[in-house]
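Notes from hallway chat w/ T.B., transcribed later so I don't forget. T.B. wanted the structure written out for a chain they're using in a teaching module, and asked if we could keep both sequence and structure tokens in one place. Agreed to drop them here.
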Amino acid sequence: EVQLVESGGGLVQPGGSLRLSCAASGFTFASTWMNWYRQAPGKGLEWVSGISTSSGNHRYRDSVKGRFTISRDNAKNTLYLEMNSLKIEDTAMYYCEYSGYRGQGTQVTVSL
């Protein structure tokens, strides 16, 4: 059974930082491209970032380039998203994703 468990969200002021984690199980994590998605209140799901199996290829949506860094630890079956210089518009539920599977998400709220 595929399981994805996100953690690390919270409330932070603009300009702050958070590190999200996603613990994966039930599939061969090291052989799989992984993604982060997010969904803001009242909006649709949007792709945020993706990483290749060996971490050699990272991709980001334009609005987070230079602020977010995706990484993975294949030995720990864990995906990460380091988020710096957070903006109010980054407020959303964040999900890790594999082949259509998503976890329950972790809430990120950026507010004064």
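Follow-up for T.B.: The chain has a mean pLDDT of 96. Might be a good example for the class.
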